TrEMBL record:
Pfam families named in the record: Exostosin_GT47
Domain Exostosin GT47 residues, every copy: 41-280
Cleaved signal peptide residues: 1-21
Record-stated family: Belongs to the glycosyltransferase 47 family.
Subcellular location: Golgi apparatus membrane
Annotated organism of origin: Rehmannia glutinosa (Chinese foxglove)
Domain of life: Eukaryota
Keyword 4Fe-4S: no
UniProt protein name: Exostosin GT47 domain-containing protein
Principal cellular location given in the protein's record: Golgi
Length: 347
């Protein structure tokens, strides 16, 4: 496994041109820590109160992959982190009962008030007046699916799962992706039919933009290859962002506020990979001005980086080195040094 990982990592770095920057904050640190994680990271999983499944593909793949992985230990004394498993439809009252039972029946929660624990909630959980749920929300690492509702994500603590993606090359019937891209459109949007309708209507009226509504995968992948930038409306249809990046379409995320829940925020330099653009007050004209302001040199660099970064955002039924599952595990590894709160009694 270590040798395979080293080879894949070197291949990824070699794929970047000499003039390109790195998609990583620190490639050396990432590789060294990743190797350590593979050999030493251990997670103890509490027994769920009842069997359950995640209907969300990324959450389901992450959870099932973790259960089958060598990261799991049956000895809580050697665990770095503890997983609190519960169904995504668990009520606040039932969740409070789960945490209360952990506190009363196991010694591990009380050592850190849950700071060395994590849980999977595809949509995320809100703050609660219940003390047990509040400790879970404030102290434990939440793993949810990108994008997360405002207020449900705590930056620098929580982690988001990349959206589930299919293979772009399979969708394109094995057609090769040209390294030098000739585009017909400045920007492409696969619209969900609901988000930001005023802006979308303006984009439809501009010949430099292509807007398709709820397009089938094969259709939007072909449109991606004809476009310079791919537009994503935050909280709209973002599931195809990984395919777009794989095919060299630089992502432009249109937001209404600063966001800090992009996948792999601890690993990838998103500011060099994608454009985050506030909902344009000037509509499509202002958006067009922003995109036209990206130099060809800058665009070529961003395109290389987004293709390289996409390799880490792909989900596999059987996890592969450096894929989405392992990168999420790496983010958990970075959070294993929990703050140790002073122990106190609970009533």
């Amino acid at each position: 496994m270590a040798a395979t990982t080293a080879i894949l990592f070197l291949v990824l770095l070699a794929s970047l041109s000499a003039t390109s920057s790195s998609p990583y904050f620190s490639a050396t640190t990432l590789f060294q820590n990743y190797q350590n994680m593979l050999t030493s990271f251990r997670i103890f999983i509490y027994t769920p109160t009842k069997p359950f499944n995640f209907p969300n593909p990324p959450a389901s793949l992450f959870y099932s992959s973790l259960l089958r992985s060598p990261f799991v230990t049956q000895n809580p004394a050697e665990a770095h982190l503890f997983l609190v498993p519960f169904s995504p439809d668990t009520s606040t009252r039932s969740l409070a009962r789960v945490i209360r039972e952990l506190r009363n029946n196991h010694p591990y929660w009380n050592r850190t008030l849950g700071a060395d624990h994590f849980f999977v909630s595809p949509a995320g959980i809100d703050y609660s007046s219940d003390r047990n749920v509040l400790e879970l929300k404030k102290n434990s690492v939440q793993i949810s699916v990108f994008p997360v509702v405002s207020g449900y994500f705590v930056p620098h603590k929580d982690v988001t799962l990349p959206p589930f993606s299919t293979s772009p090359l399979a969708l394109l019937d094995g057609q090769e992706v040209n390294s030098t891209k000739t585009t017909s459109f400045l920007g492409y949007l696969n619209w969900d039919g609901m988000t930001e309708p005023n802006l979308v209507n303006e984009l439809k009226g501009d010949v430099d933009f292509l807007v398709q509504e709820k397009s089938e995968p094969l259709n939007y992948m072909r449109s991606v290859t004809e476009s310079k930038f791919c537009l994503f409306l935050y909280h709209g249809e973002v599931t195809w962002i990984v395919e777009a990046m794989s095919l060299g379409c630089v992502p432009v995320v249109i937001v209404d506020r600063p966001i800090q829940d992009l996948p792999l925020m601890d690993i990838l330099r998103w500011s060099e990979i994608a454009l985050l653009v506030a909902v344009p007050r000037g509509g499509s004209k202002r958006l067009k001005k922003v995109l036209d302001g990206v130099s060809e040199e800058k665009y070529a660099d961003m395109r290389e980086l987004c293709v390289a970064a996409s390799k880490h955002l792909v989900w596999n039924e059987e996890p592969q080195p450096l894929d989405a599952f392992h990168m999420v595990m790496y983010q958990l590894w970075l959070r294993r040094h929990a703050v140790r709160y002073s122990r106190r009694e609970f009533v």
